[in-house]
Amino acid sequence: MEICKDAAVKAVGTPDREELELINALARRELGADEVYTFTLRLCDNDIDRDFERFGDETLDQLAPMFVGAAGVFDHQWSARGQTARIYRTQVVGGDGALTSDGRPCRYLKGWAYMMRTAENAALIAEIDGGIKREVSVGCAVERVVCSICGQELDACPHEKGEEYGGQTCCGVLTGAADVYEWSFVAVPAQRKAGVIKSAGLRAADEARLGRKYLRSLRREMVRLAGLAEPEAGHDLLEQVAAKLDEGELLKLIKLYRGRAEALTKPRVQLSYGRDEGAKGPADGAFLI
Question: Residue 94 half-sphere exposure, CB side, CA atoms within 13 Å?
Answer without folding.
Answer: 16
